[in-house]
Structure formats: C-alpha cells, structure tokens
Amino acid sequence: MVAAWTGRVVGAGVAVPAVLPQDRLWDDFFAEHYAGSELARRVWTNSGVATRNGVVDPRVEDVSGWSTGARMRRFVEEAMPLGKEALALCLDDAGIDPRDVDQLTVVSCTGYATPGLDILLARDLGMRSDVQRLHVGHMGCYAALPGLATVADAAAARGKVGLLLCLELTSLHIQPPSADREQMVAHSLFSDAAAAVAVLPSPAPGLEVVDLVARTDVTGSALMTWDVTDLGFRMGLSSKVPRVLREHVAEVVAELLDAHGLRVPDVAGWVVHPGGPRIIDVVADRLGLDSSRVADSRAVLREHGNCSSATVLIILSRLLAAGTLEAGDPVVCLAFGPGLTLYATLLRAAPG
C-alpha cells in the first residue's frame, strides 16, 4: 500500500547581504544618477523602503555600465556564499542533514550559470550525488509559489525530502541613467536576498501545502517585463499593475478558499508579496484585510525592499518563527509577477 504523504514546510532560512540605507543611497548615488530629478526623488520617497540589502553598493561600485557577462560572473561569485548560508540555516532549522535531501529546487530570475547554482550548491553542501535538482528561471516575483508546489508535490507523491531556495541579486542590474519612470520605481524598490524552506513528507509538524491557484491576464503582459540586454536585465514596471491586480485578486483567493470550505475571515495568516506600497494597499482593500493582517508584508518591504521571488519566503519564515499558529490554522500566500500572473497558495498548520 502506498503511503498517503503530504508535503509540509518544516523549517526556513534567510540570508541577506550588506544593509543599504535607502536615504543614503539616494543622497550619495541616485540623486546624481538621475541628475536631481524631482520625479525620481518623489518615487524614492514613496517607495515604502527604509533599508534594503545588496551585494553591490552603488556608492562604492557603479555597475550600471557593466556588460551582462560581467554581471553574470559576479552573480555566481556572490550567490554561492549567500545561497549556502540560507540553505545551511534552513537545514539546521528543520533538523535535516544535507545527505538526507532528495530534491533541491533553486529559483532565480537575476542570474544564470552552467553548471547551475543547484549543482554547485548541492556539491558544496555535501548532498548525495543522486539528489534530484530543478532550476526555475526568469518567472519573477511569484516564482516561489510554483517552486514550493513542485517541492511539496515531490514530497506528497514520492516521499521526497525537499529544499527550495529563492535567490535574487537585483543590485547587479542597475541600469544607466534614464528619465524612464519605470526604471526609477524599479531602482527604488528591488533588493537582494536568499531564502530557503525545507519540505518533508508527513507526518511532520509544520505547514502542510494544501492547494495552489494561478491566474494569468495576458492582456497585461506588457505591464511587467524583465528583459535581458547587453547591460544586464532591465525591468519594465507599469503604474497600471495594481489596477490589473485589483481586478483579479479577490476572485483568485475566493477560488482557492472555496474549494476547501473557507472564507477570508477564516485565514489565520497572510503572506502577501510586497511588490510596492500600492500592491499591499490593493490586496488589503479588495480582501477586506485590516492593517494587522498585512503588517509583516509592510515590515519586510520597509526593512528589506522587494527581493523578488525570495520575498514571500522571508515573510513566511517570520510567520513560522512567531509560533502563533495553532493546528488547523489556514495560511494564504500571494505573489504577483510577469504575465501578469497571480499565484495563491493555501497552507495549513499541522499538529506538532
């Protein structure tokens, strides 16, 4: 008889590079970068970010004129120690030995290498030679949730012990000066981080991965882009994104919850990707969430900025560390990205 497993998140680890104060970044680099633009200053002031993290401090090292090849070489150099730290913390939190890992999924849209980070990190952490690996690339900010579903499916279907690592180094992709407002917004928000979660087949205490819902509105596909150029990756981020999100988020969440006999008030924890202050505002308004329900999302935006795919895992790690969930409590994770795409994941606190 085949075991009836479910995938459960049982540990997390977060690693971030140097802290960069938002006001000093403006005063000491971006004010001159944008030639004193009043528009850029307003964008910076309204970003909702107080500090963020970066492997590159533009006040010390201006990479805006670097080739994509140079940026990719730097990506591997910086990503390896950061990824190892996040994974080591996650393994320790979950009480797992690296040789017990069956499946490693690595998510990133900010750098590429072959052999990939999945191979290099598995090697350096001492995982088995038969560890199964997956690299998820260029999906953007929502990629953690399909990544989590993949790891959880391997646990549920085949009893695999899995790790998911989301690692993004957006500081490598500062662009040359431009009057483009979308570039100003991107440079004011995005940050670097590595975040990992461990997923075990049940029985295990933690957060059971219950369900996943996706919605892509292709009519808005041009509103959020991430293009590979000769000078790194260039973000396109329209001010219309919150408007499209407003049209779909309530319906997506209702689809996720209705299938399990739940309503919005039943949800004990909300993990909302803070794409920017307006994104959080739209989600809270459309779902009727008071400020306390999205406080962690605002705090992560304020303290770390938008870390692309790593951001929801950072918020989830805070929720796990708080220890406030009781057995059976539902948790909803929401993330948004190119496409325009919305992903919603339902988790449920499992007994300890």
How would you summarize the topology of this molecule?
Blueprint (H helix, E strand, L loop, with lengths): L6 E9 L3 E3 H12 L4 H8 L5 E3 L14 H27 L8 E6 L8 H9 L6 E6 L6 H15 L3 E8 L11 H9 L2 E10 L4 E11 L7 E6 L2 E6 L3 H18 L10 E4 L4 H11 L7 H10 L5 H13 L7 E8 L3 E10 L2
Parallel strand pairs: 4-5, 4-6, 11-12
Antiparallel strand pairs: 1-7, 1-8, 2-3, 6-7, 8-13, 9-10, 12-13
Helix pairs in contact: 1-2, 2-6, 3-4, 7-8
Give the key terms.
352 residues, alpha+beta, Peroxisomal Thiolase, Chain A, domain 1, 2 domains, nine-stranded mixed beta sheet
Structure description:
This protein folds into two domains: 7-201, Peroxisomal Thiolase, Chain A, domain 1 (3-Layer(aba) Sandwich); 206-350, 3-Layer(aba) Sandwich (Peroxisomal Thiolase, Chain A, domain 1), CATH 3.40.47.10. The strands form three sheets. The protein has a nine-stranded mixed β-sheet with strand order 5-4-6-7-1-8-13-12-11, sandwiched between helices. A two-stranded antiparallel ribbon has the order 2-3. It starts with 6 loop residues before the first strand and ends with a strand. Helix 2 packs parallel to helix 6, helix 3 (68-94) crosses helix 4 and helix 7 packs across helix 8 (277-287). The mean pLDDT is 95. A hairpin with a 3-residue loop joins strand 12 (330-337) and strand 13. The chain has ten helices and 13 strands. 38% of the residues lie in helices and 26% in strands. The protein is an alpha+beta fold and 352 residues long.
In short:
This protein is of the alpha+beta class and 352 residues long. It is built from ten helices and 13 strands.
